[in-house]
Design goal:
NAD(P)-binding protein, 9 helices, seven-stranded parallel β-sheet, Rossmann fold, alpha/beta, single chain
Length: 294
């Protein structure tokens, strides 16, 4: 396979940094973006500029995204894989987590990923050779599949990203050959939780679980091996027909199974309640919608 050109966001630590090196070690080319390029000074010293382009990019600032892609195109002529990885986290009960922090989180986790995705689709379709397309990997989370106590706004941002991505995937013309996959990791050894904004415990929620979760997150000792996880993601990007959803890690698999089983159980128990709810008289548009979705 021809070496691929990867565009990766959030490469200072975690999945982004490890994926950058993994791609380079496997003969690929990387456009590594991050808010503070000095964090990749060691990579810049080890890899030549014709293999690794390091760019300053804050995905929360939409105006910075198109120029970053243009620099990637100027350097390598195309972009084959976009790994939407930049993210942040807020730890605290949903009721008391500050709105300001939640909005800042959404600016990165949701809007940043959305705006990178939009530009990625344009480049795959209009810059890459016709029919070549590209791969869009969204680094979502098992938190995009179900609830996770004390991570309410992080969970919400990942659910939003999942909804956007699934819709985007249905809108793409198959002839463009653009493949989209939601990577849904469980708890891997990254810095995102340790660097998270931790909201002080509110007296109403001052119980053993609230303290235990905060202590575990502060310890930063998470079970998933990020090197192994990145190797799997890399292989997913090389599949000819990748899945829309890809749970990463045993806890990611459990989260997906639990979410699916809950939906099936609910439909079995209450699905009949939604029968015979159609209007007595329907126009052409209503009939078309009914036939399309029922």
């Amino acid at each position: 396979m021809t070496p691929q050109v990867w565009f990766i966001t959030g490469t200072s630590t975690g999945f982004g940094r490890v994926m950058t090196e993994h791609v380079l070690q496997n003969g690929g080319f990387v456009v590594a973006t991050l808010r503070k390029p000095v964090a990749l000074a060691d990579f810049a010293a080890r890899y030549p500029k014709d293999r690794l382009l390091i760019l300053k990019l804050d995905v929360a600032v939409a105006s910075q995204i198109p120029p970053a892609f243009q620099q990637a195109i100027d350097a390598f002529g195309r972009v084959d894989v976009v790994f939407n990885n930049a993210g942040m986290c807020v730890v605290g009960e949903a009721e008391i987590s500050p709105e300001e922090e939640a909005r800042r989180l959404f600016d990165t986790n949701y809007w940043g990923a959305v705006n990178v995705s939009r530009e990625a689709i344009r480049v795959f379709r209009e810059v890459n050779p016709a029919g070549v397309g590209g791969r869009l990997l969204q680094n979502s989370s098992m938190a995009g599949l179900g609830p996770l106590a004390l991570f309410g706004h992080y969970v919400a941002s990942k659910h939003a990203l999942e909804g956007f991505t699934k819709t985007l995937a249905t809108e793409l013309d198959p002839s463009w050959n653009i493949k989209v996959t939601l990577i849904e990791p469980g708890f891997f050894q990254t810095e995102i939780v340790r660097q998270a904004k931790v909201v002080p415990i509110h007296p109403t929620y001052d119980d053993e679980r609230a303290s235990e979760v905060r202590d575990l997150m502060a310890a930063g000792d998470l079970p998933g091996d990020i090197e192994k996880g990145v190797s799997v993601i890399y292989n997913v990007a090389r599949l000819s027909d990748p899945p829309l959803h890809f749970p990463l890690g045993g806890d990611g698999v459990v989260a997906m199974k639990t979410a699916g089983e809950l939906l099936v159980t609910t439909v079995k128990q209450y699905g009949s309640w939604s029968q015979n709810l159609l209007k007595a008289e329907m126009g052409k548009a209503a009939i078309t919608i009914k036939n399309a979705y029922q």
